[in-house]
Amino acid sequence: QEYTGIKLRVLEWSDAAKTPVEKVPDNSNVYFVAATLRPETMYGQTCCFVGKDITYGVFKVSDKDYFVVSDRAARNMAFQDIFASWGDLEKITEVRGADLIGTTVKAPLSIHESIRILPMETVKSTKGTGVVSCVPSDSPDDYATVTELARKADYYGIKKEWAELEILPIIESPKYGNLIAKALVEQMKINSSKDAKLVEAKEEAYKEGFYHGKMLYGEFKGQPVSEAKELVKEKLIKSGDAFNYAEPDGLVISRSG
Ligand code: ZZB
């Protein structure tokens, strides 16, 4: 699987993360790295998800830069020229996902200056980086999760407004209008972030967006999604806000440990 790793820079740590991250030198840049297949949607990021029960490592990338990702992702990255020296990993500290909730980050291209780290129950520790950028306009899983987080903010231990940032229309499709994920979630009567119908909704959102979607926002406004995807990705890589991150398939990973 070929992902784009998006770098979301930490602005302020949550209280619970402050002690574990004391080990990271002052004045460093620390980034949550989200693995995405949809770089063209990054304008619409409203939060960033982690799994509460996943343990994240803070890994040294260079003297100034550190990444927050799962151990598994860091191990893969070590063999892709992402860290300073090939095959070498330097884990500075660890933080549990639950303790990261509420941290604020600056997400590249997002219309929102600052977004929060929030919990998502369906984040898989065995996929990507264990960090997921939330784009509720175009990802049905994300739309279902943010609406649920806002509805049950107390239960999730967050402030309601953290999950209620404006949802920006980024892509228009003839079938579902300018908020594909919202339209699908409503049409398919999905009312939980764990609804099995989300698998089908995601497939449909991918297809509709890619084959029939047109950009409504940003530098490539008016262009088909199938073209804008690569262009936005290149732009993010050029500005240093993203990099390519490839992942061996599940079988290989389970064999090599
Ligand atoms: C932003 C985004 C915007 C995404 C969108 C999708 C969509 P796939 O298709 O199963 O390979 N993701 C990444 N890592 C994880 C994880 N560890 N656990 C759960 N979800 C994860 O999944 C790739 C997509 O799933 C990634 O792309 C990421 O969300 C999420 F508008 O990033 B995406 C129709 C989907 N739209």
Overview of the molecule:
This is leucine--tRNA ligase. Belongs to the class-I aminoacyl-tRNA synthetase family. It comes from Lophiotrema nucula. With 257 residues, this protein is an alpha+beta fold. The chain has a single domain (2-256), classed as Isoleucyl-tRNA Synthetase, domain 2 (Alpha-Beta Complex), CATH 3.90.740. Helices cover 29% and strands 24% of the residues. It contains nine helices and twelve strands. The strands form two sheets. Strands 1, 2, 3, 4, 5, 6, 7, 8, 9 and 12 form a ten-stranded mixed beta sheet that branches. Strands 10-11 form a two-stranded antiparallel sheet. Strand 7 and strand 8 form a beta hairpin. Helix 4 packs across helix 6 (180-187). The longest helix has 15 residues, at 198-212. It is globular, with a radius of gyration of 18 Å. The two termini are 18 Å apart. Residues 35-38, 41, 122-124, 127-128, 130, 132-133, 135, 138-139, 202, 205-206 line the site of ligand ZZB.
- Which CATH architecture is right? Alpha-Beta Complex
CATH class: Alpha Beta
Bound ligands, each once: ligand ZZB
Q: Give the termini distance in whole angstroms.
A: 18 Å
Q: Compute the number of strand runs.
A: 12
Q: Gyration radius, to the nearest Å?
A: 18 Å
Number of domains: 1
- Write the CATH fold name: Isoleucyl-tRNA Synthetase, domain 2
Percentage of residues in DSSP E strands? 15-25%
The string of secondary-structure elements, in order, is EHEEEEHEHEEEHHEHHEHEH
| Coarse morphology | globular
Task: Give the number of helices.
Answer: 9
Q: Can you tell me the residue ranges where pLDDT is under 50 for at least 5 consecutive residues?
A: 253-257
State the helical fraction. 25-40%
Helix-and-strand structural type: alpha+beta
